[in-house]
Write a structure and sequence with these properties.
Layout: E1 2-6, H1 14-21, H2 30-38, E2 48-50, E3 52-56, E4 62-66, E5 68-71, H3 82-90, E6 98-101, E7 114-115, H4 121-138, E8 143-147, H5 151-159, E9 163-173, H6 180-184, H7 189-204, E10 207-213, H8 219-236, H9 244-253, E11 258-265, E12 268-277, E13 281-289, H10 296-311, E14 316-318, E15 332-342, H11 345-370
Helix pairs in contact: 2-9, 7-10
Length: 383
């Protein structure tokens, strides 16, 4: 096998890359990752420099790959290591740059070590990991991180000695609900009334929602939504990294995966929520508004998504990172995983101790929050 690094996904044929993705992972598709590069969402300005890793067999066929980035900060990762960087700095050492396998700005679990279906998965994964470690050592990088890894990659990376880190998100699971009212039947009376009141307040305010697929969205609607999206960052002093042309590109290249919720008050759009979907999962990603209406955020970002998931027979709705307020609306604490290699022996030992203690704390946190779910009876584990 031969391993190489490329600085742009444009160097890889879309059909070759997508053949490795397997399953149904819209964020891993060539169309999504290439759009980030082509529409100004990555690069030195944002601290994400593509260094995608490829594995070819003796015949030159692409049999493995990893979305890989040289990072000069920790923005857009959602696995927070700011304290690690500060500890390095206090010792007079450089934590950045580091090497990260992730989907930029996207905390969605999925494969990171991509393998052709008819190849030896163990051999290809080893080739990918060894090449990434060799690059990190050769360039004097502080660390290598694999973020939001799926079960197979997590098990492999742990077996290779990498440190596992636990996280928590809140996911909604479809247990065969007929509609939203059927879903609410499983709630306690108090919590059921609360959700119905929130939905009613949006209706009483005269706000109506439109749910659009990628092919239905006009350039003007993309322009309006992008204005909403950037307003969220401006309100909180952040930086809007995703360009309007990036969203428009996804509407054209992944029309069946894009789900845009727009809220209208009278003739005017006032808010929007951007989602992507796979065959069985809806992923909530971005939200913004230009007018405040009671409970509209919950309606556009959560309840409309649940409605959509039920209507389309999706198994799961992942509305993004963090947010304990989701628990009271039926989103269940769900574990996430990442794997880490740290070059400095002393820091590696300290980090390993930290992630071990953190894992116990995350388990306790999830157990406590599960006790605050709104259901009348304990729910079975998600499939």
């Amino acid at each position: 096998m031969r391993t190489t690094f490329v600085k742009s996904l444009g160097a890889v044929a879309a059909s070759d890359w997508n053949a490795l993705v397997g399953g149904d992972h819209p964020f891993l598709r060539h169309e999504f990752l290439a759009a980030l590069e082509e529409h100004g969402c990555l690069g030195e300005r944002w601290g994400w420099l593509p260094r995608h890793l490829l594995v070819n067999d003796a015949d030159g066929r692409l049999v493995g790959a990893a979305p890989l980035y040289l990072k000069y900060n920790s923005y857009g990762e959602f696995v927070f290591d700011w304290s690690w960087a500060e500890a390095y700095q206090r010792r007079g050492l450089r934590y950045y740059p580091k090497l990260v396998s992730a989907i930029p700005y996207t905390p969605a679990t999925g494969p990171r070590l991509l393998v052709a279906p008819d190849s030896d998965p163990e051999a290809v994964r080893k080739a990918l990991l060894e090449a990434a470690l060799e690059k990190a050592r050769a360039e004097g990088l502080s660390s290598l991180h694999w973020l939001f890894t799926g079960p197979e990659d997590t098990a492999f990376l742990e077996a290779q000695g990498l440190m596992l880190r636990a996280g928590c998100q809140f996911h909604w699971n479809n247990r065969g609900y007929r509609d939203f009212d059927d879903y609410l039947e499983g709630f306690s009376s108090h919590n059921r009334k609360k959700l119905r009141r929130e939905r009613r307040r949006v209706q009483e305010a005269g706000v109506e929602l439109e749910v659009l697929g990628g092919a239905e969205i006009t350039d003007e609607q993309w322009r309006i939504f992008h204005r909403f999206y950037t307003s969220t960052f401006h309100k909180h002093g952040g930086h809007a990294t995703l360009s309007e042309s990036f969203f428009r590109a996804l509407g054209h290249t992944l029309p069946d995966n894009v789900v845009l919720v727009l809220a209208r008050h009278g003739r005017r759009y006032v808010a929007g929520a951007f989602n992507l979907r796979s065959a069985d999962t809806l992923y909530g990603r971005h939200w913004g508004c230009e007018a405040e209406f009671h409970s509209l955020h919950f309606e556009a970002c959560y309840y409309a998504g649940i409605d959509y998931a039920i209507a389309h027979g999706l198994r799961r709705f992942e509305p993004g990172a963090q947010g304990e307020h989701k628990v009271g609306r039926g989103f269940e604490p769900t574990a996430t995983r990442s794997a880490h290699w740290v070059a400095h022996p002393g820091f590696a030992a300290a980090v390993r101790d930290f992630v071990g203690r953190e894992h116990e704390a995350v388990e306790d946190y999830m157990l406590e929050l599960a006790g605050h779910l709104p259901f009348k009876h304990a729910v079975e584990a998600a499939p």
